[in-house]
Amino acid sequence: MATSETEAPPELSTAMDGAFPAVEIEKELNPGLNTEVTVDPISSEVVAKGVEIKEQAEAPERKREKDKCEALQTLKSAILISAAIVAVAGAAFAINKKLREK
User: What's the rounded Cα separation, in Å, for the pair 98 and 94?
Assistant: First the structure.
């Protein structure tokens, strides 16, 4: 029993029907006409999980950097406040000394 070139043998026709989605030849041959974007759900899930894993891996590093910046900001604030107190105390001693000289 001979089959034509366009027909698949019966044993392959059932396997091919479920294995591959239908393809629109016009869209495949002329990509500019294809305005629909199809997303492969499996690969989009893989990419999403990869991004999620990457964010989870970077989270401790970002927290450490944030803590470091907060510690530096606290140290800067403490130094500025201490400098202001020393300046006020120095001015008070200078004024007190000038008043005692008179």
Answer: 6
